[in-house]
Amino acid sequence: xxxxxxLILAFMLVVFFCPASSNAExxxxxxxxxxKHHLSAGKLYFATSWLEKILKYHPKxxxxxxxxxxxxxxxxxxxxxxxxxxxxxTLLKEYPKAAASLDSKLLKLAESHPQPEPASNIMAIPxxxxxxxxxxxLSSPAAEPVKIPSTATTTLKNIxxxxxxxxxxxxxxxxxPAAALLPTTAESTAKxxxxxxxxxxxxxxxENALSVGKPNKTTEIVTYTLDIGAYADKxxxxxxxxxxxKAGLSTFLEQGLKKDQPIIRLYIxxxxxxxxxxxxxxxxxxxxxxxxxxMNGSNKLQVFVGAYLDQNLASKEQxxxxxxxxxxxxxxxxxxxxxxxxxxxxxxxxxxxxxxxVELEKQGVKSSVVIQRPPSL
Length: 377
Prior knowledge:
The chain is an alpha+beta fold. 45% of the residues lie in helices and 16% in strands. Among the domains are: 2-112, Alpha Horseshoe (Serine Threonine Protein Phosphatase 5, Tetratricopeptide repeat); 223-257 and 339-372, Alpha-Beta Plaits; 259-337, Alpha-Beta Plaits (2-Layer Sandwich), CATH 3.30.70.
């Protein structure tokens, strides 16, 4: 009886959960949300993966222009200029008015970057204006022999009878084989004059062309992860990682985009020449205080003894150094700093990920559940 109950429960799980996974993979709104989420987090390769899927599954989408524009900008931001140029040319061909919304850099990229040669490893963007008849001929199996150029295999079915008849009747001019081995039927003659299939190279991009407008039937395993956020402050990130590890989850770090970050520098003074700045450094070193020199816009040398993201930490250090007889001031500046994208855990279902997100929030760590997928590039 227990075995029967297990079978019934397994069947119910398949019925209720499998359709949800399939819809999440092909739903245009969901895919667009995932793409924009990854863009906002600086995960460019993840974003392009979702945008490419929108073009593949929804080639006639009402948001096709927006998707092409986002995809081109994301390609350019991740320095994949060949793909950016190809996408921009597709955008301008299908939506000429879109040129008004492009900045000069993207327009120059579309005009000046060389057109890449077709290759099987370059994504073919499905056209929204493909004719139904063409798409049918590509997707349906051929009922008749396809007419191929002279470099392809030739059989008697392709040759007019007026040409085949002399070939069957005439004797070869080479050394004659034994009478028993001579061809006596049209089929055997066709085998003699058939060009080996292996000698004919496959046309480029045939596989990509056949898949235009057809959903990928391969079932992909969807997993989920917790997106913690982007960090510029390593100390804060390490503290968060410690809490996540205590909860029994593994953490993943990814390089994010640089962002403008206000910081507080501990400023000693300004000097007109390098010798004076070096003397000040030597003076600071006698009190076991390390320093560094930066040049400002007026070509003056400035000496600093540290930089902090937190105002309280900067003030504490200023107070400590003043007790050592070092007078300094706090100077706020904005600099471009690298960011790190932090995520945690791998989960087979969204429900399991949500349960762990609740547990992490109890520890003071906020997160959001996102689909975990490696870049398809």
